[in-house]
Each structure stands twice: as C-alpha cells, then as structure tokens.
Amino acid sequence: MRVAAETVVPAAFATKKQNILSALAIPDKDYTDLSPKGSVDKRIRELISVINRLDGAVTTSSCAGRISVFLEGTKSDEDKDVQEVSEVQSLQVVVPGGKGRGGRWLFVSHDPVNEDLGNKSMKELCGMSTQNNMLSVMDPSGTRFVRFQFEPMILHVMTASLQHAQPILSAAIHAGFRESGVQSLKNLDDVNAFPMVAIRSSGLAFGSLIGCVNQSDNGEIRSLVSEEYLKLLLSIANDRFDANTVRTNRLQANLLQTGHKQKTIWEDQEARRERMKTEGLERRAKLRAEAGDSVSSTRFGWNEEVLIEGLDLDP
Fold first, then answer.
1. Which tens digits make up the pLDDT trace of 247-264?
2. Are 233 and 208 in contact (CB under 8 A)?
C-alpha cells in the first residue's frame, strides 16, 4: 500500500502508544491512574478502544462525564483569585485538598444518579448536614464553599501528526463537542512531542454553589439552598448526562467511519527508503516502456485501423 510521507507514524510515537496500551491492558483490579476515580470509566471504554485502534492516535486521559459535589479547601493569599479547579487537576491529578488546602470531594458519580433516594435526603447525598440551612455568608472571600457540578465527557488524544489529528478533531466537532481543539503545537519541532486533540464541550456543563463550611459551628458543612433546589439540580444533571451520552455515541460512530477511511500504515525509516526506491524504479520502467512503444509506432508507421482494414475477414 502506498503511504503519503506526511501520514507515516514515527517510531517514537509508536513506542509511546505501545507503552500506554500496555498500561490500559492491566486488569481492572490492578490498574490505577492519577484521576480521582483511579481507573477508566466503563461508559467510554468502547469509545477509547475505537480511538486506540486508529493509526497515529492514542488516548492519554479521559472522563465519561460526572456529577460531583466538591468542598473547597482553605485559600492562601496567592490563590484567593482562583475560582475553579483546573481541568488538568480535576481530571488527572489528585493533590491533598484539591482546590486550596483541605478541599475534598463530597460526592462523585460517573453515571446518572437515581433520583429516588428512599429515606436519604439530597443534603446527605451531597455530604452536608441535615440541620437548618445557612441563611447568609458574612465573609465570602474567606468562606469554603460547596459546589454542585455536572461536567460532560472530555478526552485527550495524542496523535502522530497534524494529518492524524485533523479527522479526529473533525469527528469531535461534528458530534457536538464544539470546543474541541489541537494543543501542543508549539512543540512540533521536538521529535518526541506530538499534537494533542482535546475533545470537549462546555455547552452541557453547569454548576451551582449549594453550601459552605460554618466556621462558627465546628466546621460543619451546611446547605445554602433548599432540598427541592438540590433535587432540581440532580434532575438537570441527569438530563445533561443523557445528552452527553448521545454526543459520545455520535462521536464513536464518526470515529468508526474515520477508521474505515484510514489508509495509512506504519513504516520505519528503512522501510520508507526501500518503498520509495521501489516506486522510483517502477515509474522509470513505465516511462521507458511508454517511450519504446512510441518509437516503434513512429518508425514503422503502423496503425491498428490500417492493418485491420487490410485483412480479408470473409470466410
């Protein structure tokens, strides 16, 4: 199969991909990563397999989407202006306290949550006290807030080249992940750095402050909103999860089409040299053959139509 030079997968990328795939092949009970969950979400394992079967592509981090409740940590003078947990920290790195010192996850689910909680209240589900709500916050800048959030699916896909990145990015955007883009472009001169496709959508994401730590009451986590409001947030989050699943399935279908159309194969430098040499010899032989036929026809002045007309075809 003929391979365009710009779509050849470098050996350095092939090595990185193999190392990542070897780690993903570890049994679930033994596998762990740096995400808060510590493993690959079941809801997108098939999608990840589809991507990792593509030439020149491999997933490096992922989240199927999640509903979470997060308690902020204490704020130092340097991070008082930081309002959100960074995307990389949120998905890839677990640090003591998360946002600020002492922050922690009160609830996380990578699947829709059953809205029938039985005897359990939403306040309990969110890790807050069932006591009366806080009526006001005296010092917002020094208060540790509790945030309810829904975050849609996000994937990072390392690619061997911009040519490999383009169809993946196109598939993501057409699936509804319109904030997707290509990162790491400033390192393209580095032979060991490769373009990274970030597949994401902010349109489905939402969040709300729902509680805070009552500093005057032994650090108890108290709600700022009603039980009914918390149920409304959960209902909205479940609806967003459904929309997220539709987009994820559409992305998987688009990438399957990309796999069918893909025509690149891997070859190292020596194989590429031999292929180009063979193709050059074939082109030279073809040109010589065409030139020889032209000379013969001109020299003798023969013409197929003349020869046929001169034949006696009657029995």
1. 999 999 999 988 766 644
2. yes
